[in-house]
């Protein structure tokens, strides 16, 4: 949304998506509703144990993987859906493959964590625009599509590296699907909003980024750029060939 607005501004076009700063679209419920799943994903900052000598100060590493569609279609998806298992998406298949690869670099007793960034915009965009139009002339500011800010969740799971090494890719893909599914709905994101409200003013931290135990391995978080509008962006010096966020 931000890049498209920037693109249209650079070309003196009429803005097709005006950013919305209406924070009320993320108001908590009254009374708030909590569930145990949300508590497994985010923890209060004060609950994180202090660094100890056996916790190395590992740097945060960000990497971009560019994989051709044919490689995922013909190889990863077929293996991850092997033996009668439901066909998994390209993203789930790739995450399962990456999870197994990372586990190979750890000893068998180290916990390996894998998480996925889930966008909550489309899951919170259930607005009765017909009713709102009776009171507001411009209802676009109520749409999560134009909301300026992050609306994200990071569901994750963990397993011993030794177990991941021995599992077939299809079983690892099942695990990825299982931990992602509870976060793919509106209720999950409403629960996160309520959770933030209940813990104010203390900030919350995504649990996958924390190390609670000595044998906790590294946590990997994967995000997909499938919906990143690379082909729709033009700032005046040529269209980009590749984009990331």
From TrEMBL:
One of its GO terms (molecular function) is acyltransferase activity, transferring groups other than amino-acyl groups. Belongs to the plant acyltransferase family. PANTHER family: HXXXD-TYPE ACYL-TRANSFERASE FAMILY PROTEIN, TRICHOTHECENE 3-O-ACETYLTRANSFERASE. This is Uncharacterized protein. The lineage of its organism: Eukaryota, Viridiplantae, Streptophyta, Embryophyta, Tracheophyta.
């Amino acid at each position: 949304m931000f890049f498209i607005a920037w693109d249209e501004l650079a070309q003196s076009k009429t803005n097709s998506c005006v950013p919305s700063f209406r924070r009320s679209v993320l108001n908590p419920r009254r009374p708030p509703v909590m569930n145990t799943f949300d508590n497994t994903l985010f923890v209060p900052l004060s609950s994180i144990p202090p660094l100890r000598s056996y916790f190395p100060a590992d740097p945060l590493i960000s990497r971009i993987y560019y994989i051709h569609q044919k490689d995922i279609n013909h190889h990863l998806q077929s293996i991850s859906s092997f033996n009668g298992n439901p066909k998994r998406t390209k993203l789930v298949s790739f995450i399962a493959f990456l999870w197994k690869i990372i586990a190979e670099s750890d000893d068998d007793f180290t916990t390996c964590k894998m998480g996925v960034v889930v966008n909550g915009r489309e899951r919170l965009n259930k607005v009765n625009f017909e009713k709102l139009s009776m009171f507001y002339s411009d209802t676009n500011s109520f749409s999560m599509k134009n909301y300026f800010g992050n609306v994200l969740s990071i569901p994750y799971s963990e397993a011993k590296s030794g177990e991941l090494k021995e599992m077939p890719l299809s079983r690892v893909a099942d695990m990825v699907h299982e931990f992602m599914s509870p976060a793919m709905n509106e209720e999950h994101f409403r629960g996160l909003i309520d959770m933030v409200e209940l813990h104010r003013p203390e900030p919350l931290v995504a649990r996958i980024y924390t190390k609670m135990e000595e044998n906790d391995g590294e946590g990997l978080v994967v995000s997909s750029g499938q919906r990143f509008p690379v082909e729709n962006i033009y700032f005046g010096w040529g269209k980009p060939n590749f984009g990331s966020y």
